[in-house]
Amino acid sequence: MKFDAIAPGVYPELIYPEYKSTLRRGPVQSALRIVAPVPTTQNIAPSPRILLPHDMDLTAHGEGEPLGEKIVVTGRVLDEDGKPVRDSLLEVWQCNAAGRYRHKRDQHNAPLDPNFNGWGKMMTDDEGRYRFVTIKPGPYPWGNHDKAWRPAHIHFSLFGNVYAQRLVTQMYFPSDPLFDYDPIFQSIPDLAARQRLISRFSLEHTVSDQMLGYEFDIVLRGRDATPTGI
Ligand SMILES: [Fe+2]
Question: Which CATH class is domain 3-34+43-219?
């Protein structure tokens, strides 16, 4: 079954020529339905013990404060009926304020920050809410085409409540001038669906004089699903 049969235009084109690597890796045959060998309705229920002390504060991984704008990101993970997805594991990863990932394949001519790794994880609470503190990531060049720069974004992995729900997506920031030029963002056909990838500035979640707040809700399925597979 194609994703489009569920929510037209919400999921990215698997082969989107402007996003060049999809030409090499995009599937050329239809997807097959897999009969799962294990129950897919069973809650993963990961133990909170897998969380390390600073997993929810990406600014606390070094000996000092990382460079850049400290922010807090929060939101709720919901199913297609708007019900909270509780006790669910989320992982996030991102580049630093200068637009550099701590990864050997990232050779972008921008500095690494000794006080910033760029990864974290957390669990949703009874309301399906997650929250983490980080540094606002910078845009970075990625070589897809001339002047190809990614809009600032944070990668999310969501396990949902069962293994078969595991999804990845990207969160963006409001009013980024690079949206119109980014083939990854544009590979999602539906305009309203693309907008659901953009976080909202939140005065409510802004913390006094410490950091601005951004809110990003994630809907796993259904008409209001957050685009995933990006
Ligand atoms: Fe990225």
Answer: mainly beta
